[in-house]
Design a protein that fits this description.
This protein is of the alpha/beta class and 298 residues long. Helices cover 36% and strands 19% of the residues. It has helices at residues 3-9, 13-21, 27-50, 52-59, 68-73, 77-85, 101-109, 119-130, 179-186, 230-234, 260-265, 289-293; strands at residues 92-95, 112-116, 138-142, 155-158, 191-196, 211-217, 220-229, 240-247, 253-259. A nine-stranded mixed beta sheet has the order 3-2-1-4-5-7-6-8-9, with helices on both faces. The longest helix has 24 residues, at 27-50. The termini are far apart.
Length: 298
């Protein structure tokens, strides 16, 4: 990690806040920022200041170091809080942590280590985590997550990069790290959550205790999560094959589940394909998007 950049972001927080309140920048002010702090820091200050309203909407109340791209990829705080509860108090390594959208909520309930290969993103994550009030152990590392040392005592949250070649993909084998690497990592721990695109198809044959969950926020599906090990128990999904969570903006939620018997009887499989011819009365009018994504309509 570029330690000097991380240490310089925190003192610049006030300047960033002031700039967010008065976003009009003339050439002299821009030149002064670049001259005093360098091109890289000046760019981050300007970008973060302009995005504070969006950042608070997505990450919650606070002051956040972000860029347009990193903010788009960050997990909304409501979704992150829901998933954080599924780890209970176990220490978590948040792989591919980005600007700490998930790690922020993970840190509020226990110790967390964030890992990201992008130095600037890791620096922003470190600054964001330092800005929240928590007595928990918090750390951010800049490294390739495929090289991160893992142990059964530590749980994993991982958000593979779905834009590794610049284009969004739903194919896990094209993620970075690829599904094969993700599979290897999560088999080495007792509890894990993998964040995937809602439409992603994965082979869970080697993960007999895995559960598929779709999460919507304000009517829009935000992600598909794969829960493994203890995370399944903490989410209350033992005996459930898949589930849908409908989140409101205030973070309250409702859960819809299917047991193995119910899932087998459903006319629609988990990918939305018909398993048998539908009959009148076999459908539900306008269900939540997460329910449709989970194939829970009958």
């Amino acid at each position: 990690m570029n330690v000097s950049l991380t240490s310089r972001l925190i003192p610049l927080t006030k300047a960033m806040i002031d700039l967010s309140r008065d976003p009009a920048l003339d050439a002299k002010r821009i030149d002064r920022l670049k001259r005093e702090h360098g091109q890289e820091l000046a760019t981050l200050v300007i970008a973060s200041a302009a995005l504070q309203t969006k950042a608070r909407s997505k990450l919650g109340n606070g002051v956040w170091w972000v860029t347009e791209k990193s903010l788009q990829q960050a997990t909304p705080w409501q979704v992150a809080r829901l998933k954080a509860n599924w780890f209970d108090q176990r220490p978590v390594i948040d792989l591919c942590c980005g600007i700490a959208g998930d790690a922020i909520e993970l840190a509020r309930r226990g110790s967390v280590i964030g890992v990201d290969r992008d130095e600037v993103v890791a620096d922003m994550a470190s600054a964001n985590l330092q800005s929240i009030a928590t007595s928990q152990s918090v750390e951010v590392r800049c490294e390739d997550v495929r090289n991160t040392r893992l142990s059964p005592e530590t749980a994993i949250h991982i958000d593979p990069d779905r834009r590794s070649d610049g284009k969004r993909t739903t194919a896990p084998d094209q993620y970075l790290p690829a599904w094969e690497d993700v599979n290897r990592m999560i088999r080495s721990v007792d509890s894990a959550i993998i964040k995937l695109a809602p439409a992603a198809r994965v082979d869970l044959a080697e993960l007999t205790d895995a559960r598929r969950v779709w999460i919507s926020l304000a009517g829009s599906v935000r992600e598909q999560s794969i829960l493994v090990g203890e995370a399944v128990e903490h989410a209350g999904l033992v005996g459930v094959t898949r589930a849908a969570y409908r989140l409101s903006k205030d973070s309250t939620w409702k859960r819809f589940v299917a047991t193995e018997e119910e899932a087998t009887a459903m006319p629609i499989d988990v990918y939305g394909s018909l398993k048998r011819r539908l009959q009148p009365g076999d459908w539900l009018i306008d269900p939540d998007a997460s329910i449709r994504a989970a194939g829970l309509t009958i």
